[in-house]
Design goal:
The chain has helices spanning 15-20, 36-43, 58-61, 90-96, and strands at 2-6, 26-29, 48-50, 67-72, 75-80, 102-104, 112-116, 120-124, 138-143, 151-156. The chain is of the alpha/beta class.
Length: 163
């Protein structure tokens, strides 16, 4: 199973994301969606599991949870924006979600892919919307196959768009 991992769109879904996610089976959105159209456009590609982030308004918060848990291809996955933990780190997230094998989060806009205790894959795909904090926009791709550790990579996006 191939997952598209995205966060911090803040209402901007770049056409490049649609290309990168063209062959995914499921999409995980780590919050700060911005506009419901972002979720709708992603749902045209694959099923979406999304959470709200700290800057999402009432429309998004009434439709999405703060934390989503799901099981895909035998892996227990948690999706959260992470802002409820201050400045989220892999260690904090693993402590909060000890049963998760994969944790996806956003909030920092800093791309991160880390293996914690050789068993938990933690990914922040970075901010996919307009560039912030001098960081290049990015998303993630994760491959799941039962019985082997997840394989994942970060995918930088062009700075073109609403810079």
């Amino acid at each position: 199973m191939r997952l598209g991992v995205i966060a911090d769109t803040h209402g901007l879904l770049r056409p490049e994301v649609l290309e990168v996610f063209a062959q995914v089976d499921h999409i995980l959105h780590g919050g700060d969606v911005g506009k419901w159209d972002v979720v709708s456009d992603l749902e045209a590609l694959a099923p979406v599991t999304a959470v709200y982030g700290n800057v999402d308004g009432l429309e998004i918060r009434t439709r999405l949870p703060q934390v989503a848990t799901l099981r895909l291809d035998g892996f227990d996955i948690v999706v959260t924006h992470g802002d409820q933990f201050g400045s989220p780190t892999p260690a904090k997230l693993v402590a909060e979600f000890p049963r998760a094998e994969i944790i996806v989060f956003g909030h920092t806009h800093r791309p991160l892919l880390e293996l914690v205790d050789r068993t938990v894959t933690v990914m922040n795909p970075g901010g996919a919307g307009a560039p912030r904090f001098g960081l290049q926009p990015s998303v993630g791709i994760m491959e799941l196959e039962p019985g082997i550790p997840p394989r994942a990579r970060l995918v930088p996006l062009s700075r073109a768009g609403r810079d």
